[in-house]
Write a structure and sequence with these properties.
Distance between the termini: 64 Å
Order of helices and strands: HHHHEHEHEHEHH
CATH class: Alpha Beta
Helix content: 25-40%
Number of domains: 1
CATH architecture: 3-Layer(aba) Sandwich
Mean pLDDT: 79
Radius of gyration: 25 Å
Oligomer: single chain
């Protein structure tokens, strides 16, 4: 395999006096530069911000029923959500950017849920964890809200009754992929009834 010869700085349009002196060897700057151009990673500010946001999601604690036990399990040593940058569960919505709604939401709890969502700073994301928060589950009655997406816009639905911790970790990974790809949050894409 042939090694490609590096171009001199003059070949790239640099026109200082030292660079244009072809009979002289490469200057000290070029020698120190070495193969830095090949090792340097370039990106845009927007992509760097999206990477930082996706790599450090802080969930809000909002457990309502049996799914909350599975949600609490993801911070244990067995599942270790810290390797994905999401281990900091916040008790204040003003410090969180992810709302994990785990469990069935009654109509009485819908207003406090919306209040917590409104108190979160933007950008913010929502994961509906379990069949009850996604569609009402087996509780098809007057007391249980038939899907949390009627109150807050949902970015990722995690199916199951209750979903295993691995499923929630997969949902968080899918959300991180969306954030890093630049997909806007659900509240920018679609509106919900208030």
């Amino acid at each position: 395999m042939a090694v490609e010869e590096r171009g001199r700085l003059a070949d790239y349009g640099l026109s200082s006096e030292r660079v244009l002196m072809q009979q002289k060897g490469p200057g000290v700057f070029e020698q120190e530069l070495g193969d830095l151009e090949e090792r340097l990673m370039l990106t845009t500010v927007e992509r760097a911000i999206a990477w930082a946001q996706g790599s450090s999601i802080w969930p809000d604690t909002f457990g309502l029923a049996c799914c909350a036990i599975e949600m609490m399990t993801i911070v244990s040593a067995r599942y270790d959500i810290a390797r994905f940058g999401s281990e900091v569960f916040r008790a204040s919505p003003r410090q969180a950017d992810l709302l994990i709604v785990s469990g069935r939401v009654s109509h009485k709890m819908a207003k406090p849920l919306r209040q917590i969502y409104d108190q979160m700073l933007e950008p913010k994301w929502v994961i509906a964890m379990g069949a009850c928060s996604s569609s009402g589950g087996m509780f098809n009655n007057y007391a249980i809200l038939q899907g949390v997406d009627r109150i807050v816009p949902v970015d990722v639905h995690v199916p199951g009754c209750p979903p295993r911790p691995e499923a929630l970790i997969e949902g968080i990974n899918r959300l991180q992929e969306k954030i890093k790809a630049g997909v806007p949050p659900a509240y920018e894409i679609r509106k919900v009834a208030s």
